[in-house]
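Researcher: Quick sanity check before group meeting.
Model: Go ahead. Protein one:
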Amino acid sequence: MQVTDARIPPEALAYLDEFRAFAIGDDYDRCDAVENAPKEELQRLVDAHDALPEAVWEWLANPPAPQDTPQEYYDVTDVISAAEYAKAVLDPPPDDPARTRATIDGLMDLIRRQWEHPPGQG
């Protein structure tokens, strides 16, 4: 890999090298790649993300001016976005019980109304 900026932390480059398949700029395509990746690969991606050293986060928090920003900066942010999405894929949030209850209650009410007043029977 050709380094375009000596200010890039080596840990960021190692992370990018290992997970370059997720350095996809388009959000839809990146999410699709995450959803279709093996769970073991997603877990490695998440574990590596969680282990990134502070130097990488500081570099990401202080990007160079847009005209001086290396492509690796964008690629690493894409991989980080993939890791964040992978966390949700691996451990989806539970359904909101209140929303689920409201949906069930609404469906039951609809069934009762249709039972009491079948369509086409006035």
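Researcher: Fine. The other one?
Model: Protein two, sequence then structure:
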Amino acid sequence: MSDTSSHARIRIALARFCVAHDIDFEALYAALGIDATQADAEALSHMAGVLDGMSIAARRIAEHGIEDWAKDR
């Protein structure tokens, strides 16, 4: 078994961190020096999908807590 976290687990951990520290994902990308205007269309589309998913997870974690965020309502 690998010691490396799955991409999904990393995204959830990052979403939790951002919620705990009130960090906006767009501000995070800017702080990392990521310029979406310079990315190719396919990469930008993928990043947008990942950001949307992380934003939804972060919002639901903030609203429902880490234990209940993924439950259907």
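Researcher: One line on it for the slide.
Model: The chain has a mean pLDDT of 79.
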